[in-house]
Amino acid sequence: MSILIYAEHDNKHLKSETHKLVTAATQLGDDIHILVAGLDCAAVAEQAATIAGVKRVMLADNPAYAHQLAENTADLVLDIAEGYTHILAAATTTGKNFMPRVAALLDVVQLSDIIGIESQDTFVRPIYAGNAIATVQSSDAVKVVTVRASAFDAAQEGDSVSVETLATVIENTQVTFESDEMTKSDRPELTAADIVISGGRGMKDGEHFAMLERIADQLGAAVGASRAAVDAGFVPNDMQVGQTGKIVAPQLYIAVGISGAIQHLAGMKDSKVIVAINKDPEAPIFQVADYGLVADLFDALPEIESALGS
Amino acid sequence: MKILVPVKRVIDYNVKVRVKSDQSDVDLTNAKMAMNPFCEIAVEEAVRLKEKGIATEIVAVSIGPKACQEQIRNAMALGADRGIHVECETFPESLQVAKILARLVEQESPGLVIIGKQAIDSDNNQTGQMLAALTKMPQATFASAVEVEGDDSLKVTREIDGGLQTLKLSMPAVVSTDLRLNEPRYAKLPDIMKAKRKPLAVMSTDELGVDITPRVTTLKVTPPPARSAGVKVETVAELMAKLREEAKVIS
Ligand SMILES: Cc1cc2nc3c(=O)[nH]c(=O)nc-3n(C[C@H](O)[C@H](O)[C@H](O)COP(=O)(O)OP(=O)(O)OC[C@H]3O[C@@H](n4cnc5c(N)ncnc54)[C@H](O)[C@@H]3O)c2cc1C
Ligand SMILES: Nc1ncnc2c1ncn2[C@@H]1O[C@H](COP(=O)(O)O)[C@@H](O)[C@H]1O
Question: Which atom of ligand 1 has the smallest separation from the CA of B13?
C-alpha cells in the first residue's frame, strides 16, 4: 500500500488537517508520501517532513499552484499518481474542489468526507446531513478519498525526511485567478479550535457578534455562525458551520441564538460538550445540548463575559 | 447561449431520514421528495441569465427513476425551456452521472452548465468537478456570484474556507452553486400549467453508452451515535460552574 496525501496549507503554514490525514493514512499502510503544491511554500514542505510516519515529501513550488486552482492541482496529482493505491486530501474547499477531477480522470469513484477506515477498501462516511452513517466498499483499483479531518487525531512530530522538488508545471489557460478576499482574524481557525462559540439569527445583526468575539478572546475560542447569520450578512461565509459549511468537533461548542436545524447539527454534533443558549425552550438545539440555558442572549452574554473576566 | 442544468430528485431538506431496521439503507418510503436545494439555486441562476438576455435556452436534466420527471417539470415551471430525463431504475453514482452529463454536453453544446455543489442525500460534492474534468471545461465550484462578460468569458466568485476567491473562466464552463448565489423563486400556478406542455425527452443510459453498474457497495447504513439532551441550567453562574467543574472544558 502506497498512500499519497495532498497537504493543506496557505503557502506559509501547514494546516493541522494534514497531521490528521497522516493518522488516517497509517490505518491503510506505512508507505506514506505527502505532496505540497503552492508558491513559495518550501517552509510548508519542511513542516510536512517532520510528521511521524511520513516517508517522503514532494514539493511543487510554482506560480501555477499558488491558488490551488482545481485544474492545475488535479493534473499535478495525476502526473505523480502512478503506483499509489490511495490518494487522500482533506474535505476542505480545496480538497473538494480538485479531488473529484483526479477521480474522474483516473476513472474511479471518489469517496467523500470519510470519518472512519475499516480496511483498505472499506470506509465509513456520513450521508443525509449525518442522519445516517454508511459503510461503503469500493472495487476500484485506486481509492480517491477526501477525509473529514475532525474525525481523526493529529499525528505526532517525528524525525525529518528530506524534501524532493518536483519540476512539473501544469498550467491551464482556461481559468485564471483574479482576486481573493480573505477573512482576517487573530483567533484560532474554526476547524482547529478547542472551543467554538457560534451565533445565529438570534444575534440580530453583525455588530452584536462583538459580544461573541469578546468571549471567544477570553476562552481562546474560534467564532462560527449558522447559515441564517451568514445569509443575513452578519458575518462572512467562511464562518458557516453545518452540512454545507464547516464541520467542527471541538471540546466545547457554544450555540447562541441558533435554533438547531438538522443542517446546522450536521456540522457540530460531534463536539464533546455542547452548550445552547436560546430564549425558546422548545428550540431543537436543546435536544443535543449537554447544558441548555433558556435565556435572552443579550442578558446571558454580558454575564458570561464578566464571569470569565473575574 | 444555451445553459444545461442538472437537477436531482432528493428527499425534502426538512425531512429527517431514518435508517431501515435491517441496516440496508435509509427508509424513503412515503418520504416527501423535492428538487435538491442547490439545484433550485442553479435553475434560478439560469433563469436570471435568460431574463438578462444572456441565455437563450435552458435545458433541465434529471437522471434516475421515472419520478424524476416531477423535478424536471418543476424546473420547467421555474423557467427551463425543455427537459431531458435519463431514465434508470436507481440513482447512478456521481461519476456515472458525470459521464452521462458529459454525453449530453457533447450533444447539446451548452455555453454553461450550472450544477448544484452537493446533493443533500449523498453529500458527495463531486459531480460538477468530474463533469468539468471529463469534458475539459474549466470549473468554478461553490459560486456566490456569476457574471458573464461578453460571449466567451465568465467571472465567478467562490466561497472558500478562508473567504472568497474570484476566478475568470473561458466558456463553455461548469459552475457549481453555493447557498448565497441567489434566492430561488417559487413556481406560479399558470407556469406550472404551462410546464406540462414543454418538451421532455426520455433517454436510456444504454443509448448514451454509459455503464451504470455500481462500483461502490454499501455494506451497511446505521443511525449516527445518539446524542441525548443533557440538563437545563437556570443561570449563567450555574452554567459556568458546570463547565468548569463537571465538564472541565474551561478553566
Ligand atoms: C441545502 C441547505 C443547506 C443548509 N446548510 C446549512 C449549514 O451548513 N449550516 C447552517 O447553520 N444552516 C444550514 N442550512 C439552514 C438551516 O436549515 C437553518 O435555516 C439555519 O441553520 C437556521 O439558522 P438559525 O438557527 O441561526 O436561525 P433560526 O432558525 O431563525 O433560529 C434563531 C434562533 O434564535 C433564537 N433567538 C432569537 N432571539 C434570541 C434572543 N434574544 N436570545 C436567545 N435566543 C434568541 C430563536 O429562539 C431561534 O431558536 C441549510 C439549509 C439548506 C436548505
Ligand atoms: N441523478 C442526478 N440527476 C441530475 N443531476 C444530478 C444527479 N446526481 C447529481 N446531480 C447533479 O450534481 C450535483 C452534485 O451532486 P453530488 O456530486 O452527487 O453531490 C447535484 O446538485 C445535481 O445538480
Answer: 53
Give the β-pairing of B82-87 and B57-64.
Answer: parallel
Site from A75, A77, A127, A306 to mutate, B interface, most B CB atoms within 10 angstroms: A127
DSSP B152: T
Q: Is residue A310 pLDDT above 80, yes or no?
A: no
Q: 3-state SS string over B37-63?
A: HHHHHHHHHHHHHHHCCCCCEEEEEEE
Mean pLDDT of all residues in A177-203: 95
Domain boundaries, chain A: 2-165, 195-309
What does the alpha-carbon distance between residue A136 and residue A111 come to, in Å, rounded to a whole number?
9
CA-nearest of A232, A278, A238, A282 to A254 is: A278
B26 in contact with A at a CB cutoff of 8 Å?
yes
Yes or no: is domain B2-245 CATH 2.40.50.90?
no
Residue A104 has pLDDT above 70, yes or no: yes
Q: From residue A100, how far is each of A91, A108, A173, B98, B244 by CA, in Å?
A: 11, 9, 20, 10, 44
CA dihedral A276, A280, A282, A285 (to 10 degrees): -20
**Per-residue pLDDT tens for B42-89?**
999 999 999 999 999 999 999 999 999 999 999 999 999 999 999 999
Cβ neighbours for A61, distance < 8 A, ≥ 6 positions apart: A37, A38, A39, A40, A41, A42, A165
Q: What pTM, to 2 d.p., does this model score? A: 0.97
Q: Which amino acid is at A149?
A: A
Estimate the share of chain B in helix, then strand, then coil, as percent rounded to the nearest 5. 30, 30, 35
**CATH of region A2-165:** 3.40.50.620
Residues with CB under 6 A from ligand 2: B 6-8, 36, 38-39, 61-64, 91, 94, 97, 115-116, 118-119, 122, 124-128
Q: Give ligand 1 pocket residues (Cβ under 6 A).
A: A 200-202, 226-229, 240-245, 257-259, 261, 263-264, 267, 278-280, 283, 296-298; B 13, 37, 120
Q: Is A121 helix (H, G, I), strand (E, B) or coil?
A: coil
Question: In this complex, is the C-beta atom of B239 within 8 Å of any C-beta atom belonging to chain A?
Answer: yes
Q: How far apart are CA A76 and CA B7, in angstroms?
A: 31
Cβ-based burial of B139 (10 A; exposed 0-12, middle 13-18, buried ≥19): buried
User: What is the rounded average pLDDT of the residues A50-57?
Assistant: 98
Instruction: Name which of A4, A132, A103, A5 is nearest B215 in CA terms.
Output: A103
ipTM of the complex: 0.96
**C-alpha distances in angstroms, B216 versus A107, A121, A134, B212?**
13, 10, 11, 11
The three-state secondary structure class of A157 is strand
Residue B117, CB half-sphere, CA atoms under 13 Å: how many?
20
Task: Give CATH for domain A195-309.
Answer: 3.40.50.1220
